[in-house]
Amino acid sequence: MVDQLNLEKKGIPTVTIATSELVGLARSTAFSVGVADMPIVVVPHPMGGIPLAEITQKAKDAYPLIIKAATNWKSTATMPAPKPAYPAATFTFKGTEAAVNELFMEKGWSLGLPIVPPTSEKVAAMLKGTTRAPGEILGQLKPRMSSLTVELVATAAVMAGCKPEYMPVLIAVAEAMVDPASNWGGVATATGSVGALVIVNGPIIKEIGIASTQGAATRGHHANAAIGYAINLLAMVPGGSKPPQQKKATLGSPMDFVAWIFGENEAKLPKGWTSYAEDRGFKRTDSVVTLMGIWPGINVVDLWSSTPEEHGTWFARSVSPLNSVGGPCFSVQLTQPHIIGLGPEHLDMYVKAGWTKEQIAKAIWEKARIPFSSWAKGCPEQVVFRQKFGEVTPDTLVPITLKPEYLQIVISGGAGQHSHYFAPFLKASPVSKIVKK
Predict the structure, then answer these.
(1) In what helix (H) or strand (E) does residue 62 lie, and over which residues does it extend?
(2) Rounded to the nearest 5 degrees, what angle is found at the Cα of 261, between the Cα atoms of 267 and 88?
(3) DSSP per-residue string spanning 255-314
(4) Domain positions in the chain
(5) How far apart are CA 390 and CA 26, in angstroms?
(6) Is residue 150 a contact partner of residue 138, using CB atoms and an 8 Å limit?
């Protein structure tokens, strides 16, 4: 729809086709980028996974409506006057904290979990955790395309129960969310159960108490929980990722409440190994956050392997069915980074054998494959796949990524023979930002 919107903004007429389930998202997306109204032809949902005869009939029914919209449609709507991004509007409310929570829920200003009322005084106190100006605009947060200010980040931080010292981390995450490389608009509106993964590196881990060892991504860790909660408040309130229109998840997941967030277990890095942030071009002394839109993380349990070869085979077999994860009909994910969260006990197995990070990734990559016949037969991206690999047979093994370098390794968690696999959402690359105080 982006192409149509760009053409409409230039005065070039278009007609957009949307299903009955997605037309609301189409209209709100147009509105968010300054297009008050545009011709949209609505067809019954769904368009995918139905017989050829049924989709043909839908096309025939839609054709006269498309012609009519292209020749007779006239806009009747106008954009409202823009409001300044800073300072944010305030209002007076008298009542109990429970009443505030009820009001915020009714207005769509909370996720359904309790919030701390974001009074002006509490937001001002939260802003003391950063040297950034309250009115600084970090970027436009999709899908609503709100101007995301430092003040709005502080407001979400208050609501989530953050401490002021968490602000630099949350601001860095917000900067990653508005970075086009994150494809946050896709993550925030997808029909799949996708959400945010945040990996933290550097001194900030100890400075504010980001959990990075045993159970780092589970309950009981205030910094992880509060920041993870604030991320989703930003996504829904200023970002507008709210069901059932903009947030189109068929079911959703707990990631929609608290994002995956943990620090890399840097204390377990073997001698001579670089941290994940260093692999991405930063210094060990830098505090860095990395955001990636992901499908639900996969726990790879392996209590049985005693050699690197055995574990690599087991890990590969565990994640192979996820090949190209999104369908499998998204060949673009073959060229996206995927993240392996390697548990310390599995790591030790490789280190004792003298393996490097690159050897581990390559061993898993060489076996993490599925037959081409497993791909959906009607998938148009089979053509794209053939362009990348040439002629294939049903038995041709499709790798999980085009190169082993796309498998990125992070040391995650504590004791226990478990590792994790985080597959990227469509066109969602990991985006790293330095934490600036």
Answers:
(1) helix 52-72
(2) 130
(3) GGTS-EEEE--GGGPPTTPPPHHHHTT--TTS-EEEEEEESPPEEEE-SS--SHHHHHHH
(4) 2-72, 97-268, 297-426
(5) 37
(6) yes
The H or E element containing residue 58 is helix 52-72
Q: What is the DSSP letter of 79?
A: P
If DSSP states are collapsed to H, E and C, what string results for 322-353? HCCCCCCCCHHHHHCCEEEEECHHHHHHHHHC
The stretch 19-37 carries a mean pLDDT of 83
- Cα separation of 431 and 437, whole Å? 19
Place of tokens 């494809």: 183
Give the position of tokens 């990070």.
357
Name, in order, each residue with C-beta under 8 angstroms of 275's C-beta and a sequence gap of 6 or more: 201, 202, 264, 266, 269, 284
Token representation of residue 350:
């490789």
Contact 44, 20 (CB under 8 A): yes
Residues 6+ apart with CB under 8 A from 93: 99, 100, 103
Q: What is the amino acid identity at position 280?
A: R
Tokens of 173: 């995450």
Helix-, strand-, coil-residue percentages of the chain, each rounded to 5: 40, 15, 45
> What per-residue confidence (pLDDT) applies to 327?
45
Residue with the two structure tokens 């037969």: 377
β-strand pairing of 288-294 with 195-201: antiparallel
pLDDT at 328: 45
pLDDT tens column, 373-397: 776 665 655 666 677 777 778 888 8
Alpha carbons 148 and 132: distance in angstroms, whole number: 13
On the question of pLDDT at 368 being above 80, the answer is yes
Q: Assess contact for 180 and 233: CB atoms under 8 A.
A: no
- Rounded Cα–Cα distance for residues 107 and 277 (Å): 39
State the residue for tokens 């006990």: 345
Q: What secondary structure does DSSP assign to 199-229, as a single string?
A: EEESTHHHHHT---STTTTSTT-HHHHHHHH
| Residue 177 neighbours by CB under 8 Å, 6+ apart | 139, 141, 148, 184, 196, 231, 234, 235, 239, 291
Q: How confident is the model at residue 123 (pLDDT cuts 50, 70, 90)?
A: very high
Contacts of 69 (CB under 8 A, 6+ apart): 15, 39, 40, 41
